[in-house]
Amino acid sequence: MTTVALKDVTKIFPDGTVAVDNVSLDVNDGEFMVLLGPSGCGKSTVLRMVAGLEDPSAGAILLDGELANDLPPRERRIAMVFQDFALYPHMSVGENIGFPLRLSKVEPTSRGERVADVASALGIGDVLGRKPNQLSGGQRQRVAMGRAIVRRPGLFLMDEPLSNLDSGLRAELRAEISGLVRELGVSTIYVTHDQAEALTMADRVAIMRRGVLQDVGTPTQVYGRPATLYVAAFLGSPRMNLLEASVYVHLDRYVTLNLGDQALYLPWDDIRARAVAHYHGERIVIGLRAEALTPVGPNTPGDVLQGRIRYLEHHGHESLAFLDIGATAVVVDEMGQAPAEPAAEGGALRRFGHAMQRLTARSGGPVATEERTSRSRTSVLSDEGRHHRRPAELAVRLAPYPNVQPGTALSVSVRMDALHFFDDRGDRIDVGWR
Ligand SMILES: Nc1ncnc2c1ncn2[C@@H]1O[C@H](COP(=O)(O)OP(=O)(O)OP(=O)(O)O)[C@@H](O)[C@H]1O
Question: Which SUPFAM superfamilies match (predicted)?
Fold first, then answer.
């Protein structure tokens, strides 16, 4: 219906805030694009510029290939859905849905028919006469969707449309909205800070941090092959284990990834060994998701790490063990919403300590402009900038309520083909495959 192209778009507010920094992004016809990132990363500003509610400070916005920088909002064939639904309280559901049609002077009979069609498609046909304050949160959300759909726009812009709803309803509406939008075939830009929404709803996800686009790809691509350390740390629960490793090359034999007390080995015939060998004598970051780690019996040969459980988290369907393996973790700050952390055994004080460390690191004064880009010159392996290091607590999945406790020794085998590699600037090291 509509394509969107952002070309080197920057937005600097009058107070000097760089909200969007040189972002280029294409949204294809009928595509469901999710803009994901923590609060303040510039998502809404991108959306508002596409809507014509903010002017870009630099760069071009193209709609259907035509420069739209100076096009007034009402000429953009766009419908917006907001977090607070923005319904008119004095109007009935039917009047709210039909309002855009009244504005565009659609005559009442045809207006009534279109409202009824949309309301019935959204399952709110029986509450057309009610006022918004007589509706549940989910129904209000549907009315807001109805008002957006009824205009038959070329592009939906949705700004956290589910964030005021409880988690059960969010999950339900997630599927409903993405199903509906796909059925209508309308291109959509959907803003959220919720990775579950992004990964479940999107055709492609664009991940932003501090105004800069970090990565764009299908949910499988951004999760499976994150472009930066930030994306790696942002996506997934539990978070990806990010460990500092020193690289040592034994030519024609293997590459050692020293993790402190222990090491992993990439055989020389593994194509990745050659790519990682460039970092001989240097430190890199390796990423290991919990799904790449399997508990094994003691003395199991192969790619195995040994550790002791520091603390456990019970999540009902599984437990997570956090292992001390004598390695150093790289922690990326500004992760926004953290994954839910249920009560842990013995971990509360330590996590409080880490949270305080993070706060201290964050309040370290203004951040240099160059740090806003992934190609920051600040090494992620120093304690400067937006990262810091601490003893690693390797997250490992266990069965629900396993027969272990803090202090228990545990061996985990590592799926070496699932390793991620990042250089000291936090950019993915291209290892030729994966
Ligand atoms: N009118 C404004 N003047 C100055 N700074 C602004 C203005 N609007 C937004 N900002 C700043 O621009 C940055 C990006 O804001 P934006 O609302 O786009 O972020 P966001 O990712 O959508 O966050 P949230 O999820 O909290 O809405 C923030 O630092 C914000 O404080």
Answer: MOP-like, P-loop containing nucleoside triphosphate hydrolases
CA-closest residue to ligand 1 atom 1: 13
- For atom 20 of ligand 1, the residue with the nearest CA is 40
- 17 alpha carbon to ligand 1 midpoint, in Å? 9
Phi/psi for 95 (5° steps) reads -70, -35
- Domain residues of the chain, as ranges? 4-232, 240-422
How many angstroms is it from 30 CA to the middle of ligand 1?
27
pTM (two decimals): 0.84
Q: Confirm or reject: Cβ of 376 under 6 Å from ligand 1.
A: no
Question: What's the mean pLDDT in 23-43?
Answer: 95
Whole-number pLDDT of residue 121: 83
Rg (CA), the chain: 25
The per-residue DSSP string of 317-334 comes to: S-EEEEEE-S-EEEEES-
Q: Return d(Cα 289, Cα 239) in angstroms, integer.
A: 7
- Contact yes or no for 424/381 (Cβ under 8 A): yes
Is the model's pLDDT at 223 over the cut of 50? yes
Q: Which of 21, 44, 50 to mutate to test the pocket of ligand 1 (most atoms within 8 A of CB)?
A: 44
Fold of 4-232: Rossmann fold (3.40.50)
Average pLDDT over residues 46-66: 96
User: Whose C-alpha lies nearest to ligand 1, atom 29?
Assistant: 40
What ipTM, to 2 d.p.?
0.97
**Could you tell me if 46 and 20 are in contact, meaning their C-beta atoms sit under 8 angstroms apart?**
yes
- 210 CB under 6 A from ligand 1? no
